[in-house]
From TrEMBL, chains A, B:
The keyword Lipid biosynthesis does not apply. Residues 1-11 have a biased composition (Polar residues). Residues 62-72 have a biased composition (Basic residues). One of its GO terms (molecular function) is protein serine/threonine kinase activity. InterPro entries: Kinase-pyrophosphorylase (IPR005177), PPDK_reg (IPR026565). Pfam families: Kinase-PPPase. Residues 1-110 are annotated as: Disordered. The lineage of its organism: Eukaryota, Viridiplantae, Streptophyta, Embryophyta, Tracheophyta. This is Pyruvate, phosphate dikinase regulatory protein. It comes from the Eukaryota. Keywords: Kinase, Nucleotide-binding, Serine/threonine-protein kinase, Transferase. The keyword Protein transport does not apply.
């Protein structure tokens, strides 16, 4: 794996007992970023909000800033006054400085720009890391009321492909220095135990995401888990029918996007109909990733819908609708991105036009009462997908307790 | 939410203490599928493999079968002789019959076709269910050595949008009848507690996926979790910059697919280059879902590559390579799907041609040593994506401990 080989460490996978070095933060053993930060044991009052006391390496701050820039967040408007400290000079990459904690400095000459750092969550995985990322993401959904815009930002750091105990220990040490918590998915029981013990020694809270569910499944099946990380030899991904089905679904859906080939609607598993900017494309792609062939048909005022749409099995068609106010906001953003001039297509995001177009969609839906109409306002793509798949499977299987079943 | 409203039950969300009805399997309260199955307490020796003793409702069997048919699995070749029992007559939808346990019958007249049922895992979520599905999926990765092809199949059943205690109790009851385990993500603590207590009462092993990580984050931030499921009022999905960025990335990537607009390579965050069937398209789409604009450039023997490819920042270009044997197998499957005649494009999957094309790609990669070349043989799309993103962020941030950081 790339990440572990970039550490140039010997492979310790066969080590049977967990290896946990003594905490010794004063003498870091490698040239890792831990060299550049103040070394202090994590504060005892870690569980209280204490925004100004966070530690962060210069690299970490640059990454946060780079991310903030990419996401378009405004950097010259500090979101948390108490957390902003001025730095006296520009910081250059790889330069070893101890900056004010709790801020990220702008690299190369923009001394007054800072971003809020937030509390850190270290996510460690021996595989792709998507499971731990997904779980942490879901948990963070429970704290929406206090994340970045409410002054309690969280920084997650994903370390994937960690298959050896030495990089694992480096990460735990770094987490201790940053006052981070550690969340991990490590298939090898001795690695998981090492992570647990090391975090205990360093006084860091840690959570094992994969362990409990793996144990439950093991005892349910009466079979021991393999203990092999995803990328391990012997766990090669087989070219299963499921793999080909997913790829076929993705390719079908891309070709089919935006009503491109209406005569192919018959071949789709799911057909989405809705006006522009109801999220048909990202929704189609999300469903395609799950193995469903999706076609989508745009409803545009004054343009006739393809006849095929009314000839195919109506049980596979789903209408999408949205609040006119939200749709207008989305369309305005879209028009800006596309660089529409004020004249050309100006009505695209005008409220009257938006309402009329939604009304014409409503009439189409009313004429086809078998199509479920899904309200997408305020829903993430994943949520709308979940509603559609629940209905899809329910209609297919006609059961009183809707569920999606899968054979492994 | 759809699933819970389809139960037509009163909303009990405000109930402060967990509601756990007494187990009384002899008198099911609703017209759910539990009416149609033998009611027996789960066997005591549940943890031992006992393939022949599984219970399943007729619906469940039909779903398994439907899924097996969709996935193209051969049904007339039983994978587990001991689990196959003959059914004497065709089974019709919604018909209430008690069939031989451990088999799924073919509906409507195909009496001799059966599929292996497997042990059940019930996944219960108050939201989309993707977190619990993702986690169970990852855990099942630890049992690849014993899943369907090795005679120890597992059936997962996803119940999403479960926001009320009554459908929750129905599900637990049904799980008890099927000898399933229950894995859940329930944001409302009283719902989670109800699930736990009910499973305990019924003697079903249960695992809370979201609870431990949510608690860890809560104590790290010093903030209480909201306890609100994803679809709850007040948890509306905001139209964040992240949302628009993801959609833009998906739309860019679709338009860019398969080298369609080479002059746009400059705008991409990541550019993938590789011969046909190295997984460029599904990989592009996977990365796009994560918010990266991806372009892909097919390397075809004898066709000149777009000049832009060599002018753009080489640090964002990734080469894909694959074993010729595996590539040939994939291309053969592809050629069959596309219905290539034996004459037309026959060399596409011929070993000599496959080797030559890979060799021409290798030469291109050798001339561009900055491009990392990623071996995709035996890797799932998610794995290759993980490797690419690790390298991408590492190159961007030049740190000694590769990670992907994100601000929430």
């Amino acid at each position: 794996m790339f990440a572990s080989s970039s550490f140039n460490l010997p492979n310790l996978r066969s080590k049977p007992t967990p290896f946990v070095p003594e905490p010794n933060p004063k003498t870091p053993r490698s040239s890792s970023i831990s060299l550049h930060v103040n070394v202090e044991p994590p504060s005892k009052s870690e569980s209280e909000p204490q925004a100004g006391k966070l530690k962060g390496s210069p690299q970490l701050k640059r990454w946060s800033r780079a991310r903030a820039i990419r996401s378009g967040r405004k950097l010259d408007r500090p979101s948390h006054e108490s957390q902003v400290a001025e730095v006296s000079r520009p910081v250059h990459p790889r330069e070893s400085t101890n900056e004010e904690p709790g801020t990220a400095t702008a690299g190369d000459g923009e001394a007054r720009l800072e971003v809020n750092m937030g509390k850190s969550i270290y996510m460690v995985s021996d595989g792709t890391g998507w499971t731990v990322e997904h779980s942490v993401n879901a948990a963070l959904g429970q704290f929406e009321h206090c994340l970045v815009d409410r002054g309690c930002p969280v920084n997650t750091h994903l370390f994937s492909g960690i298959e050896d105990v030495e990089p694992l220990m480096e990460i735990v040490k770094q987490a201790a220095k940053e006052g981070a918590i550690v969340v991990y998915t490590l298939a090898d029981p001795s690695m998981a135990e090492s992570a647990k013990q090391a975090c205990k020694l360093w006084g860091i809270p840690s959570t094992d995401i994969l362990g409990p569910i793996t144990e439950a499944v093991a005892s349910h099946l009466g079979v021991s888990p393999s203990g092999l990380p995803r990328g391990a030899p012997g766990r090669n991904f087989p070219l299963s029918e499921d793999y080909f089905r997913r790829i076929e679904a993705i390719e079908f859906t891309i070709k089919q996007d935006d009503g491109a080939l209406p005569h192919n609607l018959t071949k789709a598993d799911i057909v989405l109909a809705g006006v522009s900017r109801t999220g048909k494309t990202p929704l189609s792609i999300y469903l395609a990733q799950k193995g469903y062939k999706v076609a989508n048909v745009p409803i545009v005022k004054g343009i006739e819908l393809p006849k095929t749409l009314f000839r195919i099995d109506p049980e596979k068609v789903f209408g999408l609708t949205i609040s006119p106010v939200v749709l207008q906001a989305i369309r305005k953003a879209r028009a800006k991105t596309l660089g529409f001039s004020e004249q050309a297509r100006s009505n695209y995001s005008e409220m009257d036009y938006v309402r009329e177009e939604l009304e014409s969609a409503r009439r189409v839906f009313a004429q086809n009462p078998v199509w479920p109409v899904i309200e997408v306002t305020g829903k993430a793509i994943e949520e709308t997908a979940s509603v559609i798949l629940r209905l899809y499977h329910d209609r297919k299987h006609r059961c009183s307790m809707p569920r999606i079943s899968k054979l492994y």
